[in-house]
């Protein structure tokens, strides 16, 4: 990208940029001076969450505390409509007072010399402003929208006026010297509560500091630092009151809750104690430890007694069998270890009698009646022993059955000890838990009562409301820089869009990008009407210099003429108005001034223009007369007496015919050109536009060079595509492009400018100022 060319492309419009910058910067300066400055007022408060935890009944974990360290609830409270509505009413934001410092700028003042007292609800106040003046009779209020004035008599504010929802009175300070305020102008603005609330919410910024836990930053943006500080102070005071009120509610609810829970726990504790008492009575338990020892010992005794009884049964059975199986002369055992003293004594007596019988047997023999009587007695005695043993055995069996029953009962009671111990343990645990909770609730109630007696807010003001007197809006430096950029970018954007949407031809690059193989022959500058015909042999005008350069470039395109015949140069264009006749005229003059014989022919039979440059009547005889009648000699129609050059002959188009195409396609025109080649060095043809009619294409083959004229800032770029089409179809040959009407003042950066022209100027000698005066 050629930055210099791009810069010059925009720089040529520097007056527009300058005007835009002046307007933009002037408007910004006016705005800064007329709009009241906006300031930011800030305050920082701390809400100690740890202090709240001391009054809580349930202690939460540290992780939950970290989550509750955020202050979203407090921020929601501060920004809520109900909360801010109280601030609006406490600060009286429905009424705003201004003192007019000058005609353009209003300045808010905290204390004006009068007070406005609404006579209706502030919620129904209208959105309106009044200009206020104080005079010797009272107050004069004017509605700036309708210019309706209202007059209040006196300064006491006792008068009411229909249509005004307020009364007005002087402040106590102003009543001492009302005349001091006669020359001042004031303004009072009213607005309903909903609008005042909306304005307050839009100007209030509440945020928490993530780095500093528990801190809230309050910011208010407004034109009055005093009122902003008052608003933030009221917010802090109101928030502090809300915290205390909420704590009082929490205290009351906590105490009520604790009382209710204590009452319920007392009932539950009594119920558990009653259940324990019934359980002990039902199970005959005095003390669980003694009950366990008693039932365990009883089971052991029952088991031991049962075992001894079973042993006696076994021994008794053995004794019965042993007695039955013993012979009549054998002694019975006395070591059966029976717990039956009678049986043991009977066995001893039986053995003693048996010894007596043996003594009798030894003395008297078996037949001795004494021996026989003893044996009979021993038999009876042995039977008695058996009967006694069987009776004892029956007794033992009956006792065994009783022991088994008692043993089963003792075992059952012993096995039920863990269940009863568990039940009693649960009852005791539940009772202990209830008792501990009951004691804790009593303790918490005492703590709550003590805390309720000394309730205080956990809000602390770290930074009182302070105003940063560096205005945040409008900031003069940033505003002026923005205005400068805005003033620069507006025309830049307009010109940029204009350049992007521009379809006109302005420079060689526009042409070469479409038809790169077609040479640029030169350019014709845009000149005034006075300079239009200044193209003599000695002329140093821009048009003369440009056409000389153009003629030189056309010469390079001409093929070598070995037959020494004249060259035919055809001038054409895409559409009408691109200046082909103008270029053909000046090129004919320039070549003729080089001592070349030139014939200029007006071949545009539909809209001829050459006659205007020679001040000749449009209907003078010319080409159409010859073409329509070949018997005429075309030389008779030539105009030789021109004021521009003696070497220039002109054949005008003549009268406009009804059939120009038929005239140009007959052989007359070709014959004319062939004959003119032998008489002139150059034949210049001013033809019709090729995009509008086909006249020129019918004889374009006769030309040695085709000069295609495009006009600066006029010709469309899409016409260049037609040139490629003409070349491809060989409808035009040996084409070169001429750019006409180049504006020398605005062509910088487009490939033209002063570097393309050389203009001879005589050296001017500056005269002293006194000689200039004398020469006059």
In a nutshell, what does this entry contain?
50% of the residues lie in helices and 16% in strands. By secondary structure, the protein is an alpha/beta fold. It is elongated and about 220 Å long.
How would you describe the overall organization of this protein?
Helices cover 50% and strands 16% of the residues. With 776 residues, it is α/β, with parallel strands linked by helices. Strands 13-19-18-14-17-15-16 form a 7-stranded parallel beta sheet, sandwiched between helices. A 6-stranded antiparallel beta sheet has the order 3-2-9-5-6-7, with no helix packed on it. Strands 10-11-1-12 form a 4-stranded antiparallel beta sheet. α2 packs antiparallel against α14, α6 (81-91) packs across α8 and α9 (225-282) runs antiparallel to α13. It is elongated and about 220 Å long. The two termini are 53 Å apart.
Topology record:
Elements: H1 3-11, H2 14-34, E1 38-47, H3 49-53, H4 62-68, H5 72-78, H6 81-91, E2 95-100, E3 106-108, E4 114-118, E5 128-134, E6 138-142, E7 149-153, E8 166-170, H7 172-175, E9 185-190, H8 193-203, E10 204-208, E11 215-222, H9 225-282, H10 288-325, H11 341-364, H12 369-415, H13 417-453, E12 459-473, H14 476-501, H15 508-512, E13 520-525, H16 542-557, E14 567-573, H17 580-592, E15 598-602, H18 610-614, H19 623-628, E16 648-651, H20 660-665, H21 667-679, E17 682-686, E18 705-711, H22 720-728, E19 735-742, H23 769-775
Parallel strand pairs: 13-19, 14-17, 14-18, 15-16, 15-17, 18-19
Antiparallel strand pairs: 1-11, 1-12, 2-3, 2-9, 4-8, 5-6, 5-9, 6-7, 10-11
């Amino acid at each position: 990208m050629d930055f210099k060319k791009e810069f010059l492309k925009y720089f040529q419009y520097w007056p527009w940029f300058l005007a835009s910058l002046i307007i933009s910067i002037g408007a910004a300066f006016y705005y800064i001076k007329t709009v009241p400055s906006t300031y930011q007022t800030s305050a920082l408060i701390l809400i100690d969450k740890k202090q709240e935890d001391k009054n809580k009944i349930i202690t939460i974990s540290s992780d939950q505390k970290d989550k509750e360290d955020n202050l979203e609830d407090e921020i929601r409270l501060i920004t809520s409509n109900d909360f801010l509505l109280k601030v609006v009413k406490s600060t009286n934001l429905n009424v705003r007072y201004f003192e007019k410092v000058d005609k353009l700028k209003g300045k808010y003042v905290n204390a004006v010399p009068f007070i406005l007292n609404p006579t209706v609800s502030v919620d129904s106040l209208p959105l309106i402003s009044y200009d206020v003046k104080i005079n010797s009779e009272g107050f004069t209020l004017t509605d700036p929208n309708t210019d309706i004035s209202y007059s209040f008599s006196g300064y006491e504010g006792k008068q009411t006026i229909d249509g005004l929802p307020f009364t007005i009175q002087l402040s106590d300070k102003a009543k001492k010297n009302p005349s001091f305020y006669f020359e001042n102008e004031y303004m009072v603005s009213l607005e309903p509560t909903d609008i005042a609330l909306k304005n307050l919410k839009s100007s209030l910024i509440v945020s928490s500091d993530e780095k500093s836990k528990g801190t809230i930053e309050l910011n208010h943006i407004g034109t009055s630092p005093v009122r902003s500080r008052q608003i933030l102070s009221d917010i802090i005071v109101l928030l502090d009151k809300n915290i205390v009120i909420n704590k009082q509610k929490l205290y009351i609810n906590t105490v009520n809750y604790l009382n209710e829970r204590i009452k319920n726990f007392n009932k539950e504790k009594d119920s558990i104690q009653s259940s324990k008492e019934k359980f002990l009575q039902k199970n005959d338990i005095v003390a669980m430890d003694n009950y366990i020892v008693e039932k365990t010992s009883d089971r052991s005794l029952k088991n031991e007694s049962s075992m001894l009884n079973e042993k006696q049964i076994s021994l008794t059975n053995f004794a019965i069998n042993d007695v039955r199986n013993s012979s009549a002369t054998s002694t019975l055992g006395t070591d059966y270890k029976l717990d039956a003293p009678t049986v043991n004594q009977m066995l001893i007596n039986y053995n003693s009698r048996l010894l007596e019988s043996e003594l009798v047997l030894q003395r008297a023999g078996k037949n001795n009646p004494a021996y026989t009587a003893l044996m009979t007695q021993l038999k009876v005695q042995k039977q008695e022993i058996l009967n006694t043993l069987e009776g004892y055995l029956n007794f033992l069996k009956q006792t065994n059955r009783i022991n088994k029953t008692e043993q089963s009962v003792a075992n059952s009671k012993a096995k039920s000890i863990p269940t009863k111990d568990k039940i009693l343990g649960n009852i005791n645990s539940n009772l202990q838990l209830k008792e501990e909770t009951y004691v804790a609730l009593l303790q918490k109630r005492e703590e709550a009562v003590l805390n309720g007696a000394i309730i205080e807010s956990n809000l602390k003001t770290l930074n009182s409301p302070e105003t940063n007197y560096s205005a945040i809006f409008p900031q003069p430096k940033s505003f002026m820089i923005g205005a400068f950029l805005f003033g620069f970018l507006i025309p830049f954007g307009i010109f940029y869009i204009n350049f992007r949407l521009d379809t006109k031809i302005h420079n060689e690059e526009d042409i070469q990008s479409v038809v790169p193989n077609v040479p640029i022959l030169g350019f014709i500058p845009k000149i005034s009407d006075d300079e239009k015909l200044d193209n003599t042999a000695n002329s140093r005008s821009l048009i003369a210099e440009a056409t000389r350069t153009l003629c030189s470039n056309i010469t390079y395109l001409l093929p070598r003429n070995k037959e020494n015949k004249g060259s035919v140069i055809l001038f054409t264009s895409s559409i009408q108005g691109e200046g082909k006749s103008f270029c053909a005229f000046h090129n004919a003059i320039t070549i003729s001034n080089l001592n070349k014989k030139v014939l200029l022919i007006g071949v545009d039979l539909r809209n001829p223009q050459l006659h205007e440059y020679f001040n000749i009547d449009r209907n003078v005889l010319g080409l159409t007369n010859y073409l329509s009648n070949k018997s005429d000699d075309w030389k008779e129609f030539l105009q030789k007496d021109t004021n521009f050059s003696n070497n220039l002959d002109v054949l005008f188009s003549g009268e406009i015919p009804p059939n120009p195409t038929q005239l140009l396609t007959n052989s007359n025109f070709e014959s004319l050109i062939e004959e003119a080649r032998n008489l002139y060095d150059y034949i210049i043809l001013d033809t019709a536009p090729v995009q509008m009619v086909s006249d020129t294409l019918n004889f374009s083959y006769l030309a040695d060079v085709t000069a295609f004229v495009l006009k600066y800032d006029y010709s469309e770029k899409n016409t260049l595509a037609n040139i490629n089409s003409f070349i491809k179809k060989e409808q035009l040959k040996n084409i070169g492009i001429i750019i006409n009407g180049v504006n020398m003042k605005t062509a910088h950066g487009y490939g033209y400018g002063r570097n393309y022209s050389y203009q001879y100027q005589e050296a001017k000698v500056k005269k002293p100022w006194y000689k200039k005066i004398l020469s006059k």
